[in-house]
Amino acid sequence: MRLILPALLALLPLAVPAAAQTAPASAPQPVYELRIYYPAPGKAEALNARFRNHTLNLFAKHGMRNVAYWNELPRPDAPEGRVVYILAYPSREAREADWKAFGADPEWQKVVAESEANGKIVTKVESIFMTMADYSPALAGKQ
């Protein structure tokens, strides 16, 4: 995790909307969600295919902003690596509503059923919620 976070945070300045760069300090900031997926053994490619072919478009359909996606380099204890990504939302409440609508979408339910016909492709998901620090170069317009 130590190596992933600096790489992720380096890309966040590219993800800040122009409105957030000029908004007063009291204006609400976007909420970023860092998500880490642990693929089931032998299922990393199936997980990446599901994101590539379906999930990103469905996230966008439900108001989630795709910021960036990474594949962790293999390690001895995780030879397939993890899938790590960041989504952005206007607020935490918007995040909850977006995920509720996403989970209820019949298209998503069909994608899950088809992609998991031979078993689950994810064993664990972690989520970290973040807001941009007031000293972030992205908020100062430095990139």
Automatic annotation (TrEMBL):
Residue span, NIPSNAP domain: 32-137
Keyword Signal: yes
Transmembrane spans: none
SUPFAM superfamilies: Dimeric alpha+beta barrel (SSF54909)
Residues making up the signal peptide according to the UniProt record: 1-18
InterPro entries cross-referenced by the UniProt entry: Dimeric_a/b-barrel, NIPSNAP
Record keyword Transmembrane present: no
Domain of life according to the entry: Bacteria
Keywords recorded for this protein, A-Z: Signal
Protein name: NIPSNAP family protein
